[in-house]
Amino acid sequence: MWLPITQNPGVRLSFLDAIFISVSQISSTGLSPVSQRDTFNLLGGVISIFILEIGAVGIMMLVASYWVIIGKKISLKERNLIASEQNQFTVKGIIRLITNAMIAVGIIQIIYIAVMTIYIYVVQPFEASFLESLFQSVYLAAAGFANAGFDFLPGNQSFMVFEGYYLPQIMTMIIIFLGGVGFWPLAELVLFIKNKLHRKQYKMSFISKLLIISHFIFWILSAVIYFVMEYENSMKGQPVGTILMNVLFMTNNARSAGFYNTNINDWTEATRLVFSMLMFIGAAPNSSGGGIRMTTFFLLSAGLISFGRHRKQVFFAGKAMKEQAVRKAYMVFALAVILVMMSTLFISIIEPNRWTIMEIGFEVASAFGTVGLSLGLIPHFSAFSKMILIINMFIGRIGILTAVAMLENKKETTNVVTYVEMDMLVG
Q1: 332-350, pLDDT tens digit by residue?
Q2: What InterPro entries does the annotation carry (predicted)?
């Protein structure tokens, strides 16, 4: 991305900005210090598409898919690596999961590209030839499924270019939803359809049902909250259809993607705070989204409820959760809060008296949640501030637990002595 051959004539991108964009693309974020359309030429756009696809699927998933295609015999060690990268509890059926997940990814993006190419070329929401329509559709398919807010659309206003055109926004909401729900549910959905076609019964797993239903419920609840908070502000005087599309599109993008069809600078600070929390929570695990992940949030909530009711076990969706999973959820939440708060503090120190804590916190939450929504501050950030956001995007994408595992000592120690425990005042 730093090479002149990928950039438009007269454009000179700094090395740090090239790193920032590359990390943002590979982490499926969408934040950028420069305009993609104004900075990069067709070659740069094509390279971006490949980076976005790799970021969406993941290196291990791509390698495993290649092994499956060439018919390589995958060892138990390699299966364990794949299962660990995909947050699977067991290696059983891992190859079938990969195969069906990649089938789902391919079908989803092909349908999106076909529909969007024909629509853009025929309807002409902006002036575009057939090849331009095809390129825009492929780019949006990659960015949409990756849940990254990058686009090559004219005007540098994201989906505001489709104002009054509902089909592109609906199609993009669908592909973002499917990209954010995770590969596990997508793979099981393919299996479900295959079995239905052969008139066989197939029961989806508890985890897949949970991720799909919770993803949808979270979307609807956040849409209601957003509507209530902005109806008398940024939505005032708008037609009903525009308001409905605005509400559904923005809340669908809030936890993972970074497209927008309204000016977020017109939001109240309360709305920005709510969206910062949604971005912090993020998408489903084993998906192209970031943040602490939805399941972590649900385990935290269930743990607090169980503690309040003096239960020995944590119950969620009618099932008892393992204590280790709950402890992991608390650790992920605590470390994520520390990371986001310290990052916001450091940037506010580096950039004194330029922006409020709320504005800086919004950008940091967007980076950690790998969302891509921005108030337009990043082009004005210093090199150190950009490096802090790069760290947040990287950790947000790979996950807190993976980041901690990278730092832990390989030497295992075993406590041979049990010490006397004491109580401590808490709260």
Answers
A1: 999 999 999 999 999 999 9
A2: Cat_transpt
Q: Residues 179-196: pLDDT tens digits?
A: 888 888 888 888 888 888
Position of tokens 């385990």? 299
Distance CA 243, CA 240 (A): 5
What the block records as the tokens of 354 is 């330029």
Q: Tell me, what's the pLDDT at 88? A: 57
Q: In terms of Cα–Cα distance, which of 385, 213, 200 is closest to 295? A: 213
Burial class (CB in 10 A: 0-12, 13-18, 19+), 72: exposed
Give the whole-angstrom CA distance, residue 126 versus residue 398: 37
How big is the CA angle at 285 (ends 18 and 109), to the nearest 5 degrees? 65
CA distances from 281 to 93, 97, 221, 299, 333 (A): 29, 26, 14, 12, 9
How far is the first Cα of the chain from the last one, in angstroms, to the nearest whole number?
50
- Asked if 289 and 370 touch (Cβ cutoff 8 Å), the reply is yes
Residue 22's Cβ-count burial label (10 Å; 0-12, 13-18, 19+) is: middle
Burial grade of 60 (CB within 10 A; 0-12, 13-18, 19 or more): middle
pLDDT digits (tens, 9 = 90+) for 384-421: 999 999 999 999 888 888 787 777 665 555 556 778 87
SS3 label, residue 320 = strand
**Cα 139 from Cα 168, distance rounded (Å):** 13
Taking 3-state DSSP, the helix, strand and coil percentages for the chain, each rounded to the nearest 5, stand at: 65, 0, 35
> Whole-model pTM above 0.90?
no
Between 412 and 372, whose confidence is greater?
372
Long-range contacts, 75-82 (Cβ 8 Å, 24+): none
Q: Where are the domains of the chain?
A: 4-407
